[in-house]
Amino acid sequence: MESASELVQMLSSDNFFERQSAAWKLVEMGEKAFGPLVDTLEKCDSYQARIKSAWALGKIGDPTAVDPLAQALLEDEDESVREWSAAALEYIGDHKAVPPLAVALKSDPFKDVKLRATKALISLNAAQTFAELLKEDDVFIRRMSILGLGNLNCMESMANVAVQINDDDQEIRRLTAWFLGVVGTKEAGTLLKPALKDESHLVRVAAVQSLKSIGDEDACNMALGLLNDDHPQVRLAAVTTLGEMGMEKALDRLVELMFKDEDQEIRAWAAWSLGEIGHPRAIEPLKMAVKICPTPVVEKASDSLIQVFNVDPDEI
């Protein structure tokens, strides 16, 4: 059986499978491999060996590895080593890693490292760190901060995130609309209103999708208003959101769209939404759609009749 010293030398191999096999053996050795792995991470010229050392240290999970991994995250010349060091810090799960991960998110020049640092900070429940980073001028840092706060369902930050709804950056506005849907309160619905009129259809789509989690009558009315949107993706999102909300008040407008919208996909999903609402008043319009509508609409209408109302379209 190879020693830890012999195995770490194999981490520099040109053969991927040899490197991976050696790394797994080092993980299985546990604390006996710790010293050689740290030495390799800090001193080895091979970036492949440093990557595998970071990975193995993360898998071993010893919190003692946080400091050398944090140093590699902030100082290693290779972006892949820095990325895998952030991943290893996530695996270990020690909150001592939060400050260096925040520094990496703020200052690393590579997007993939920033993304991995963000993921690790989410895993470490670093809501306060994201709240502080939201104050930064850098657009990407603020995007990641909103993403992190949303994934952590941080209602305490709702007011500070909501002001981003008028930001110049489209992606920040879209993420803000998404965040408000994650919060899902009546107040969040009120704060979401500017996004429903945003110049970007992608922001409007995110906004209408967020209305589902808010789910009250005001949210239903807002979704109904977007059935008249100029962009088909927004209308489609409104149609499916209304189906998922399941409110009867949307039924008549969905019936109208099922027969009259210029986009067949929207008409088909209107038939689906009528089934999701599940009110018996939808049965006769769905039967009519099976008789006279294009094939995509007929298929969705038939599914709704069979699955929701136990009506066989072949007997119509």
Order of helices and strands: HHHHHHHHHHHHHHHHHHHH
From the alpha-carbon coordinates, what is the Rg to the nearest angstrom? 26 Å
Tell me the CATH superfamily of the largest domain: Leucine-rich Repeat Variant
Q: Between the first and last Cα atoms, what is the distance in angstroms? A: 74 Å
Main beta sheet:
none
CATH topology (fold) name of the largest domain: Leucine-rich Repeat Variant
Low-confidence segments, given as residue ranges, are: none
Write the layout of secondary structure elements.
Layout: H1 4-10, H2 16-29, H3 34-43, H4 47-60, H5 66-75, H6 79-92, H7 98-107, H8 111-123, H9 127-133, H10 139-151, H11 158-162, H12 170-183, H13 186-192, H14 201-214, H15 217-225, H16 232-245, H17 251-260, H18 264-277, H19 283-292, H20 295-307
Short description:
The chain is mostly helical.
Description:
By secondary structure, this protein is mainly alpha-helical. The protein has three domains: 124 residues, Leucine-rich Repeat Variant; 83 residues, Alpha Horseshoe (Leucine-rich Repeat Variant), CATH 1.25.10; 102 residues, Leucine-rich Repeat Variant. It is 70% helix and 0% strand. Helix 12 runs antiparallel to helix 13. The longest helix is centred in the first third of the chain and has 14 residues. The chain is elongated and about 75 Å long.
